[in-house]
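Hi support team,

I submitted a single chain yesterday and got back a structure, but I'm not sure I'm reading the token output correctly. Could someone confirm the output below corresponds to the sequence I sent? I've pasted both exactly as they appear in my results page.

Thanks,
R.
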Amino acid sequence: MLKRLSLALGLTLILLLAACSQQAELCSRPDQNPDCLRFLEQRLDEARVPGVSVAIIENRRLVSQWAVGNHAAENGRLLTSVTPFQAGDLGQLVTAIGVISWLQESERDLDFKVNQSLSGWRIPDNSRWSGDSVTVRHLLSQRSGLTPTRFQGYRFGERQPGWSALLNGTEPAKSEPFQLAGQPGQTCHPSAAGYEVLAYWLEQETANSFPIWQNRAVFTPLNIPARYRLIGLPAPALGHDWQGDTIAGGYRRYVERASSGLWASPTDMARVLMEVMAAERGIGRVLTDSSLINEMLTPQGCGWGLGARIERTDSGTLIFSEGVTPGYRAKLAGNLQDGHGVVIMTNGDRGDRIIEELVTAVRRDYNW
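Hi R., thanks for writing in. Yes, this is the structure output for that exact sequence:
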């Protein structure tokens, strides 16, 4: 009798675990499945992440966009598919498209040495390497050797630096001076500083501020409302720390726009990814030069193409980018040949675990 009872309890436990596993597999479309929605809400609560927003691309078309959770843990305002998040490093792909757009219409190329046209500030030499050797290609492919590697932004009320203070690391900048920490072209490490140098260079090359150039070259042609300031955008998702508390001031302010300061929804970034997919087939609206497109989608070293990680596999060319700023986590991933992709954004420091679970679910449910 006791043995049969133990067997029955064991079978019940197995069935319960199987039901939970099946429920987890449904979480790529919580907008269509109430059980899946409840499971995802439970996972968000466990991870202390207020919300998540997702855009899915199938056969180069945006087929799904949904959001679950709240702008902030305290206010109960629901996220929507157009709610902007801090995109972090995902914005570097957008910067790269803006740079390539300039190369397409100017006499510059990827191997142009940026110090040749910079004025007011130039990439400094150090005891071993010359700043004059740093090229546009090095900056775009994370091989410039420049530091700082990442910026932490500015809290509400803190003074923010202009170009001179930022580049030279003087008050009120909170980051170190931009300098070479490795040999250009041979060093492999993420360099947020490199993308800010590109923005500084673009401003001098185009005679436009970086946001104005990006609006003209990228946002307007692709019809996406992403911006480097929140003016004119819907209320943003607020960032949350590892404890699930809203960070002071709601989010950090970034003057380092090219590397870290983009506000965008997953749908905005999905349209950017679809432009890259179209360009790979020779039908891009912004990216039109086949030689530059090929360079962009070719690993330049260290697994980086121009603006994002690139991996060549038997199933096609894969593109990846992960965004990290205080209070936010994001991921972009796609297969350029198959035309599949997903962009996921969360407003919590512990959003990585939610993102990876959703990427797995999307791949499974869409048979990628």
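A quick pointer for reading it: The two ends are 48 Å apart (CA to CA). Let us know if anything else looks off.

Best,
Support desk
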